[in-house]
Amino acid sequence: MLTPGDVVELDLGVPTGSGAGLRRPAIVVTAARVLTGRPNVVQVVPLTRTIRLSSAEVVIDPDAGNRLPALSSAQCQHVRSVATARILERTGNVGPVALGEVRETLALLLDL
Prior knowledge:
This protein is of the alpha+beta class. Helices cover 18% and strands 35% of the residues. It has one domain (6-110): SH3 type barrels.
């Protein structure tokens, strides 16, 4: 079962414009109470190794918990809903601090 903050490997298909695409890691940001129902669609924030220092992105250091291979940036401006069938594997979890930063950035972007 997925949990908030999980790092998953996704198949996002062919990108269009400046959107994230192809196979890439992402962070699951769906609420825990929703995930307990094993939904067929979840909300994710794609990750990239390109660090832009944008206020819409959160830089995440690799560690044993998240198992990221390199410094990565959570692209909060590219938050999306994806079918769980697009999830190829769960590789780690960013933990509550990084997840909180991502969710805070999403709240600012979405004016919540």
